[in-house]
Amino acid sequence: MANVLIVDDSASMRQMVNFTLTTAGHKVVEAVDGVDGLEKAKASQFELIISDINMPNMTGLEMVPQIRALGQYRATPILMLTTESSGDMKQKGKSVGATGWIVKPFNPAQLLNTIKRVL
Amino acid sequence: MAGIDLSQFHAVFFEESLEWLDVLETQLLEAEHADAEQINLMFRAAHSIKGGAATFGFSSVANVMHEAETLMDGWRNGQRQPSEALVRTLLKAVDICRTLVGKLQNAEPVCDQDSADIVTELQQFSDDPDNASQSLEPEPDTQTSETKERIWQIELKPTLDLLMSGNDPLKLFSVLADFGPISGKVDFDQIPDADFDPTECYLSFQVELVANASKDEIAEIFEWLDDDVGVTIDEKIAANNAQPSTIEAVLNEPPAQAASPTSKKPVEQPDKTSKAATSIRVSTDKLDQLINLVGELVITQSMLGELGRELEGFVGERMQTGLEQLEQNTRELQESVMRVRMLPISFAFSRYPRMVHDLSNQLGKQIELIIEGEATEIDKTLLEKITDPLTHMVRNAVDHGIEKPEKRIQNGKSEVGRLTLRAYHQGGNVVIEVADDGGGVDPEIVERKAIERGLISENHGLEPAQLQALIFEAGFSTAEVVSDVSGRGVGMDVVKKNIQQLGGQLALKSVVGEGSTIAVTLPLTLSILDGQLVSIDNDIYVIPLLSIVESIQLKASQLRHLDSGQQVFRLRDEHIPMFGLAELLHVDSVQLNVSDGIVVVLDSPNGRFGLLVGELLSQQQVVIKSLEDNYQRVMGLSGATILGNGHVAMILDPAGLAQSARGGVV
């Protein structure tokens, strides 16, 4: 089972992801924005990072390259939470170093199915 | 895993959505002048609500926020400008969503139809309405239909850096294996003889899958791979064709058992794993009960303390230790409980931007609302009770105070009226001011009406200011036409009565043609203050941090003596009078030289002055206890507080100090 970092400014989204992953046996740490995410990534080692894009203080797109730049996360899967309507965000996420994306809205089963591609 | 009950996250979602709706509303009211950051904030608000609503299946809300988000995205990209009509419609959308969330919160039924009208309305602003409505329903779980099995050939030619993107072909294949049995071949040709780099991916794969999955379903698994990674997915029509002529290998992973981590155990224990919320709602009754109980506890504790002192011997000593600890704990408990009651006045102020916006539209006026001191903390009970009178005062200022644009221009004013809401601590009080730059209260009109209504006699002998204050009398309305905004003249007298019931004061300052300011002064027996602790001799005093400009050390040579005996010193370009705190408070036992102490420069309504104190101690928040209640009002002191060590410290009132200092100097 994996250590997972979830970065999202929405508490309900964090809780939902946290609960889903925790019940699936993963260990989850929550971060409330990019700054927090980066800090928590540095402080520990995660096997998967799931991050929202639109966040205060530091967006997901700003955070991902900085996490990639940390030696320990060069090849760690990082998934961005996007919505269908924010079209090119998928590719923007890829271009800053994300592994892939999860399209909102999703339910717990879809989330678990999706992360299997990298865990 | 689909069995997870999402409803456990609903409460957080509701709370979060209502907060976001507030943000959205606040920003919308300033939409015309919004900068990029504010527009982004609005977008994020709509986006977050939509995301959550869609996830939790509240499509009525999600649909509205989807439209709002689309429109704001247009602002962000500069494709669209916020028109007044659009802002109005968006505000309406905010209201509707608030109602919907409220209904959902109360578990009342809500359907998409409830928001259909506003969605249509919003779509009309959208440039491309066709594009606007996307499916926001959570995708249905991919259901395995009972169609015939197909054989798929999937070829994957990774780029060398594939692994560095976090993607791993083996894991993708193990997901693929969920569809059905897979077998495959790995091509090792690209592995270099020398300079092998383990972080690079030299292998390519050919995999055969037998499943009833569709091509799209399979493609989705590989969607994260960059375009330059070769992925081909073909259906094998005929049975066994030519085998690829490469080195053959079968994936070591036993495909059928490459089970999902999810199938391990279905856990349904929300309580153990879900994170505790960071805030909870508590009914005020419970809180008040808690405060009462703590009050009782304090009394009991001090009683025990008295008793304990009478005990002697070994038992007495132990009792004493225990009692001291109890005292400490009780005090901390009391302070914590009191702090729970304090709320920033923004809780009351936040409703006014919307109200003023709507009212001024309704009345055809242009009004700029300025809010100052919204972080000023005030007891929750006071806050609740002051909201209605305040609302009335604001309505009144908008309706009767500020003139219509034409009239303002005639009077040589800017056509945009200005309404200021201001809150601050003064002495032991909270002052809330509602100030407008409107026509002011004309004492002559008031006089005429008051006589008309029999409030005063013809030869009343009242000063203009006293006449103006008559607007607080029952049954008084100065507006020429009774409007549906402020209603009849049943307002200001009720306001006055409400505020007096809270132990507060109401003061009107009004200049004809220039505007009016109504200042509400409320007592603050429970208030908390950021204080700077200072000492003279062994006594500790608290100076409100807000009043402190700076603290300096002076040499005796820097002080000058005026003929009056007043000492002044020069701070940059300003001459500032200096007083000794000990002298001001008549602590005659202390003789402090300026070179031995520190001069704290304070701001007061009467100008700046220096206060000579012995030492600067720590800064901390203190709970203000009223002196009036426990003793009597003392000039220069706004209250007292009990410090962590149990000592009482007086809280200085810079305005009062300045006044008593001036009195002393003459």
Structural write-up:
The complex is a heterodimer of chains A (119) and B (666). Chain A is of the alpha/beta class and 119 residues long. Chain A is 40% helix and 22% strand. Chain A has five helices and five strands. A five-stranded parallel β-sheet of chain A has the order 2-1-3-4-5, sandwiched between helices. The longest helix of chain A is centred in the N-terminal third of the chain and has 13 residues, at 11-23. The termini of chain A are close together. The mean pLDDT of chain A is 89. With 666 residues, chain B is of the alpha+beta class. Chain B folds into five domains: 7-136, HPT domain (Four Helix Bundle (Hemerythrin (Met), subunit A), Up-down Bundle); 145-263, 2-Layer Sandwich (Alpha-Beta Plaits), CATH 3.30.70; 284-342; 346-523, 2-Layer Sandwich (Heat Shock Protein 90), CATH 3.30.565; 528-662, OB fold (Dihydrolipoamide Acetyltransferase, E2P) (Beta Barrel). Chain B has a six-stranded mixed β-sheet with strand order 14-18-19-17-16-15. In chain B, strand 10 (505-511) and strand 11 (515-523) form a beta hairpin. Chain B starts with 9 loop residues before the first helix and ends with a helix. At the A-B interface, helix 1, strand 4, strand 5 and helix 5 of A face helix 1, helix 2, helix 3 and helix 7 of B.
Can you give me a brief rundown of this structure?
In chain A, 40% of the residues lie in helices and 22% in strands. Chain A is built from five helices and five strands. In chain A, helix 4 (89-95) links the parallel strand 4 (78-83) and strand 5 (100-104).
